[in-house]
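P.,

For your records, the input lines for the assembly:
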Amino acid sequence: MSELRWDPLKKNWVILANNRGRRPQDFIIDREKVVMSACPFCYGREEKTTHEVFAIRTDGSRPNTPGWRVRVIPNKYPVLGIEGDLDKRGAGLYDVMNGIGAHEVIVENPDHERNMADLSPLEIADVLKAYQARLLDLRRDSRFRYILIFKNHGLEAGATIPHSHSQLIAVPVTPQAVSTKLSACREYFERKERCLICDLLNQELANGSGVVRDDGDYVVYTPYASSQAFEMRIVPRRHSHDFALLSEQEIAALARALKDSLMRLRSVLRDPPFNFVLHTAPPMHLRLGKPHYWNSLPYDFHWHIELVPRLTRIAGFEWGTGFHMNPTRPEDAARFLRETDLSVSF
Amino acid sequence: MSELRWDPLKKNWVILANNRGRRPQDFIIDREKVVMSACPFCYGREEKTTHEVFAIRTDGSRPNTPGWRVRVIPNKYPVLGIEGDLDKRGAGLYDVMNGIGAHEVIVENPDHERNMADLSPLEIADVLKAYQARLLDLRRDSRFRYILIFKNHGLEAGATIPHSHSQLIAVPVTPQAVSTKLSACREYFERKERCLICDLLNQELANGSGVVRDDGDYVVYTPYASSQAFEMRIVPRRHSHDFALLSEQEIAALARALKDSLMRLRSVLRDPPFNFVLHTAPPMHLRLGKPHYWNSLPYDFHWHIELVPRLTRIAGFEWGTGFHMNPTRPEDAARFLRETDLSVSF
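Structure tokens returned:
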């Protein structure tokens, strides 16, 4: 029998549809690969991109030349543009504002062939430090309500350029998915003086069946009400609202957890398309008429990463209801992810 | 410059991304077609399906034999099962219930090769009458909070069987997408004593640039804050909360409007994958301890159909924010849809 499960963090029901393909092999298909003759993200082709806004270079090399390990550039085809003032107005019953924001690309390593799962923990730590640097910089811009960092891997997950990269989009309104999580956490904290995400983590740890990996610093688990098959959440055990404030040591541990999770996903589902999204507290600009940041507010949020393979399609039912249909029980997914042999390559 | 637009009905922002492919030809690609050797929905193969729960037959033929024009059968692989009592319980911070519901398939015509856009208005009217009959029947089941009728066309829109069919899923909780619309309408009505969907329709009619078709009974328009390219809404001019209560004449007019919209979509985008979803008032079971229906409540909802081609992918940004990125301005989409030549086949 199928089951409906309620996610108190996303405030939504999920349908676990038992009748659908659900073991890893049911999801493994030949996937279209993008082949690029001249990749603009490749080492030595820096002049093909927009001017870099950040890079990690250890050899004293100059911007927009070789010598980088991680490189951040404005997206050449930005969804939202950085120039201009916000212009907000009504349009009858609708509202409209111009598309002010930032859209950047984090090129994760110079080598076209190496995906994030192939990078060493040290190399992944550099990527995470680039995320931190960009978050801290863009937070100073009071036009932005949220800064989303995410990664698309594989064509079905929206990656049109195969060279491994993440993206950052700063938006002038708080996105619905973010405000739902924030309000869930705030309401919970106001009632209980505890963090919802801490409590969810503790419940998953006590239950145990969804835990994929626990190294004492970070827990990786498949949430009980996962909306997608093989969805994973990477959560720090230490309550912390702000990813940008992590120490070097915490970043190093996260890099290990992230690499391990990516390798497990790749191993179990044979390099599936996936997205990951960093959820961290937004900058707040609403107090005393000048920019304030979330770290001056009660610490009721808890940053985390959502890692979601793209295995199923959105159809009319999902569109019309907002439900997701997950064909794999999260506890089954966790078992496959836990037990996979990471020493076998394919 | 891109633009953000707020949809007061779905309570969400949409990003109109001007930098992306946006003319119809940018979306036209070769699509995978499903070829079936033995289609279970075909005329003469009635014994291959589950037992029909409804059919339109005019020749006195018996159930589960040939002679039908429209046929409704339980889905052989239901997402939710019809048998049993609801079992709802907490699971720590989560909630869980067993997957009680109904999942039916409406086979729209006997011929494997004819899609809904190929059917005559009379034939489409029969399909719509089947929707009405199933809604009225399943509403009597007090376990169901909502009954969604929708159609998937094309593999990318979730249709794994190409023989033209719609689906019905009855669910034991009110889906988020439905409750958002219901509450938007209720709040608006409480404040203004007017219907939000009537007022949105009037604004679109006054503006005019999004109107695709208006025959006096039904208006087809591309909503100002469309979240998908070439999204259309089919709205009755006469305020009515309940699709199931439409008269024969109203059904006939809707069949003409629906056929015309499907033909326009097919013509402009060369048979794109699409979904449509019927939004109508849910059964209400909460009063006086016995089933009551929405038509005993203030008429603050207004039924309509959403028709959405599946042209873009969900990637990390959409997943992490809940925003949709629409690469085509709705007013441009409306122009293409209005001006397309329906006499040309392809």
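Two observations worth noting. The longest strand of chain A covers residues 146-153. Helices of chain A lie at 24-27, 121-138, 176-192, 196-207, 248-269, 316-321, 330-339.

Regards
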